[in-house]
């Protein structure tokens, strides 16, 4: 490609902070629940690249086709690949796109097509680099580029941005798990490739879960992780994830507590060790418990009927009836803050 950048080109990244930064020097954007992506166009050649610099082009043919139809023949866009399903984002459907079989990718591109949410313009339609420009200027140029070349393209969407701290806080309150959080960017800053020069405020939520089983630590006789369950509408206890953030000083006592409750089946619905992309060689090595213990955990995302990552153990809930630990806690009703998601 004959663009003023060298591939792979690493995107600017964010570091986590607890609070939204304040001041006129900050702009706020939704943190999309998808795959970070850079889209390169040079004449008839279009490439998609991941955050880590790996090619994504073959996995998203519908996005490549949309970019190929853009009248601008040169550009570099920074954004996020998402898969909307019924107006909400589905990370599970997005993960399925990274598949070795081209036929499978092609089928999914029609049944669950992806969109590219753009939030930065790094090379314009003339092939000029905007990387040294401050974000304030780049955002104006991006909005002009979108209006001129992308507005009628269904697969390419302009991300929202605001300088209002109150609106950013509203997104955090109302998103209810649909997004990763809020990204804060300095408007007086150039694009800093490969550096953690932005700030990310995560959306963290809590849920009360039944401890349906546990695993011993590797090569140890004390608990390594607690296996978490939630009841569905049929009254079945389904495995939804784990927590391993048990303080070291408490592990012996926790081990004694759970060993007294060992009794199958533990989970009456989906159980650990079932076929899934999370399965490992150790998936079946767990002890089932009577469903009597309840813990409150903190998590960031619940998708595909489970917590996407490990959760943080906050406290034990002896006051909580295990049957009250239902899937309703992790359901959300809100849509994402974007205007033209396809159904």
Keywords:
disordered C terminus; alpha+beta; 6 helices; five-stranded mixed beta sheet; 343 residues; six-stranded antiparallel beta sheet; D-amino Acid Aminotransferase, Chain A, domain 1; OB fold (Dihydrolipoamide Acetyltransferase, E2P)
Question: Can you walk through the features of this model?
Answer:
A hairpin with a 2-residue loop joins strand 3 and strand 4 (45-50). The longest helix has 16 residues, at 135-150. This protein starts with 12 loop residues before the first strand and ends in a 27-residue tail after the last strand. The protein is α+β, with helices and mostly antiparallel strands and 343 residues long. It has helices at residues 61-69, 91-95, 102-111, 135-150, 165-174, 251-259; strands at residues 13-16, 26-31, 35-42, 45-50, 74-82, 84-85, 88-89, 115-123, 156-158, 181-186, 196-202, 205-216, 223-231, 237-243, 287-288, 294-299, 302-303, 306-307, 312-316. Residues 274-283 and 339-343 have low confidence and may be disordered. The strands form 5 sheets. Strands 12, 13, 14, 15, 16 and 19 form a 6-stranded antiparallel beta sheet that branches. Strands 4-3-5-8-9 form a 5-stranded mixed beta sheet. The protein has 2 domains: 13-202, 2-Layer Sandwich (D-amino Acid Aminotransferase, Chain A, domain 1); 205-330, Nucleic acid-binding proteins (OB fold (Dihydrolipoamide Acetyltransferase, E2P)).
């Amino acid at each position: 490609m004959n663009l003023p950048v060298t591939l792979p080109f690493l995107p600017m990244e964010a570091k986590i902070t607890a609070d939204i930064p304040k001041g006129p020097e900050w702009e706020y954007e939704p943190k999309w629940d998808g795959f970070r992506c850079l889209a390169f166009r040079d004449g008839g050649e279009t490439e998609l690249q991941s955050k880590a610099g790996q090619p994504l082009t073959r996995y998203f043919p519908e996005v490549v086709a949309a970019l190929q139809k853009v009248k601008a023949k040169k550009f570099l866009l920074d954004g996020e690949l998402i898969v909307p399903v019924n107006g909400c984002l589905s990370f599970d459907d997005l993960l399925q796109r990274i598949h070795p079989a081209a036929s499978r990718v092609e089928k999914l591109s029609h049944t669950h097509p992806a969109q590219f949410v753009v939030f930065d313009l790094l090379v314009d339609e003339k092939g000029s680099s905007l990387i040294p420009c401050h974000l304030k200027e780049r955002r104006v140029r991006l909005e002009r580029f979108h209006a001129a070349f992308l507005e009628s393209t269904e697969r390419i969407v302009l991300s929202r941005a605001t300088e209002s701290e109150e609106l950013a806080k509203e997104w955090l309150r109302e998103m209810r798990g649909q997004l990763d959080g809020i990204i804060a960017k300095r408007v007086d800053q150039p694009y800093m490739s490969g550096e953690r020069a932005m700030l990310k405020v995560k959306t963290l939520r809590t849920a009360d879960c039944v401890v349906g089983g546990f695993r011993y630590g590797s090569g140890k006789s004390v608990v390594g992780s607690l296996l978490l369950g939630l009841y569905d509408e049929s009254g079945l206890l389904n495995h939804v994830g784990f927590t391993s953030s048990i303080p070291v000083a408490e592990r012996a006592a926790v081990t004694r507590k759970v060993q007294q409750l060992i009794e199958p089946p533990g989970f009456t619905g989906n159980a650990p060790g079932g076929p899934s992309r999370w399965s490992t060689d150790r998936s079946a090595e767990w002890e089932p418990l009577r469903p009597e213990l309840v813990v409150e955990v903190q998590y960031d995302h619940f998708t595909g009927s489970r917590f996407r990552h490990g959760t943080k153990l906050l406290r034990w809930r002896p006051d909580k009836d295990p049957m009250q630990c239902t899937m309703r806690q992790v359901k959300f009703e809100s849509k994402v803050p974007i205007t033209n998601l396809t159904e």
